[in-house]
Write a structure and sequence with these properties.
The complex is a heterodimer of chains A (about 90) and B (about 210). With about 90 residues, chain A is mainly alpha-helical. Chain A is built from 4 helices and no strands. The longest helix of chain A has 17 residues. Chain A starts with 7 loop residues before the first helix and ends in a 10-residue tail after the last helix. Chain B folds into 2 domains: about 100 residues, RNA polymerase sigma factor, region 2, helix turn helix motif (Rna Polymerase Sigma Factor, Chain: A), CATH 1.10.1740.10; about 90 residues, Winged helix-like DNA-binding domain superfamily/Winged helix DNA-binding domain (Arc Repressor Mutant, subunit A, Orthogonal Bundle). Chain B is built from 10 helices and no strands. Classes of the chains: A mainly alpha (about 90), B mainly alpha (about 210). Chains A and B meet through helix 1, helix 3 and helix 4 of A and helix 2, helix 3, helix 4, helix 7 and helix 8 of B.
């Protein structure tokens, strides 16, 4: 059985940075060792990774129908910043 | 800066010049790639589609009138999102923000350790599942339930994929706060989404939950 050299609480604290690849190599190694031995933290890691994938999916925020067209109309009715309306 | 980024910056500079030369249509071209981003930013704060559209329009119009003050120190998109944020917050203030704010701020203090609610075993999400409205709605609801501090950072970093530096610039908070809030936001979302995705959303699979205590 792998030795757990880092506590679960410490692992949770670093999960986001771990996913971003923003942690020192030695900490990464300790966390990986922990994940291989701890199903709970692995579940939290997988879940957090899924959240990032879901949220970043790009289709989460659909614009209302006709949004672009109405925005375009607003812009068309503007005067230019430096040019007086003719 | 990558070649593509640098090309888009050059193209933007050209469009901005055309707008200031009086070509209104060029402004739409300038804004168009970011309209979804503007809308998503607005709705992440005001939370209802009609208000979000109004905010998005006001932000774009404001960007137009202030275009001469855009110096190109940041990306045009960052500048536009910053304006959208300001407009959205102003709208909230006008509408008595307490009515809109999440009431569940107690669980969301930035200080102290975060303890996951449970350890639902959540396997990778099949991509076809992402297409389902039910999931989209659940994710949106979960994002809405976050308090503004967390929601703002999550939207900028994980939805719009802005850098930490751009996020600090738009929100006026430190790099450390961006990291802490993003982390907390992700864990809170996992807490609220994991049971649904692993259980009720995949037919024929029992909801497996592991609690160590």
């Amino acid at each position: 059985m792998a030795t757990i050299e880092i506590s679960c609480v410490e692992v949770w604290r670093e999960i986001s940075n771990y996913l971003e690849g923003e942690i020192p190599a030695d900490l990464r190694e300790r966390m990986e060792k922990h994940f291989s031995a701890c199903a709970h933290c692995t579940a939290v890691l997988d879940g957090t990774r899924n959240v990032v994938a879901l949220v970043g999916d790009g289709t989460m925020f659909q614009m209302p129908e006709g949004f672009s067209k109405r925005l375009y109309e607003k812009i068309r009715n503007l005067t230019s910043p430096n040019v007086p309306r003719d | 800066m990558s070649a593509i980024q640098s090309q888009s910056r050059t193209n933007e500079a050209y469009l901005i010049k055309r707008v200031s030369d009086g070509e209104r249509e060029a402004f739409y071209e300038l804004v168009r790639p970011y309209e979804r981003m503007v809308y998503a930013t607005a709705i992440s704060i005001v939370k209802n589609p009609a208000d979000a559209e109004e905010v998005a329009q006001e932000a774009v119009l404001k960007a137009f009138s202030k275009l001469a003050s855009f110096r190109g120190e940041s990306k045009f998109s960052t500048w536009l999102i910053q304006i959208t944020y300001n407009e959205a917050r102003m709208k909230l203030r006008k509408a008595h923000s307490n009515l809109y704010e999440s009431i569940d701020d107690t669980q969301q203090s930035e200080d102290g350790e975060f303890w996951p609610k449970d350890y639902a075993d959540w396997r990778p999400i099949p991509s076809e599942l992402l297409e389902e409205n039910e999931i989209r709605q659940a994710v949106q609801d979960a994002i809405s339930s976050l308090s503004t501090n967390y929601r703002e950072v999550l939207i900028l970093r994980d939805v719009h994929r802005l850098s930490i530096k751009e996020t600090t610039m738009i929100l006026g908070i430190s790099e450390g706060s961006v990291k802490t809030r993003l982390h907390r936001a992700r864990l809170l979302l996992r807490d609220s989404l994991a049971p649904g995705i692993d259980g009720s959303w995949i037919k024929g699979q029992a909801y497996r939950k592991v609690r160590p205590w």
